[in-house]
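Could you join me in thinking about how sequence relates to backbone shape in a protein? To get us started, please write out a protein record for me. Would you write everything just below, so we can both look at the same thing?
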Amino acid sequence: MQMQTKRVAIITGGASGIGMAITERFVADGIHTIIVGRDAEKLNQAKNKLGNLCYPYEFDLNQLSDIPVLIKKIKEEHGQIDILVNNAGINMKRDFMETSDEAFQQIITTNVNAVFAISREVISYMLPNKKGSVLNISSMAAQYGMPRVIAYSASKSAIDGMTRAMAVELSPMGIRINAIAPGFIETAMTAVALNSDPERKHKAISRTPIGHMGQPLDVAEAALFLSSDAAKFITGVILPVDGGNSIGF
């Protein structure tokens, strides 16, 4: 049996929700997985649960000017970066007219600017090897219009555009860029959003042909595939993992 070479991944927001599911799946596949987040307690819990292949780095991605230092440190400590999963993101449920410039910008900074900055820094280390995979986490909010999430919708639409533009520019140099657009997945974040709004929850499930919400593992399996050599001819794709929600009626 051929020994698999070492693989190193960075997952932002990798200590909770969908990010944690991706981290678990990557570690189970033998990938050295670095998780970046602001919550030291969650990071340490993930480390304790997943063991030696999980490496927590406490960092606030809104500190854009410090991102190059973080990525340089990771590269020096781990020798390589093969995979980046841009999972960290924030949402804000607020009426359009109640959304201030500051609140809108806060979402854009975390969900777009930080994704761009960390991708640029990671890719600078991937280019010499002419190989690497960047996976962005998009949303159904970029697929169709949803009320009360104007900033989030704008940010995830930007992610889809960046994914395509990056793929066209970087794929000739061996760097694949893809995205996953999760549908309604059972996480703590969606529980808060939907359990307090039964009408919205019913609408979400009723237009999902599979008829129920997804599990974080469903997204994690797709993330592992798109980040692996099994997907070596796939780039610029925004893959809905949504039980058919984006095409449901």
Summary: Helices lie at 17-28, 40-50, 67-78, 101-126, 150-170, 188-195, 198-206, 216-227.
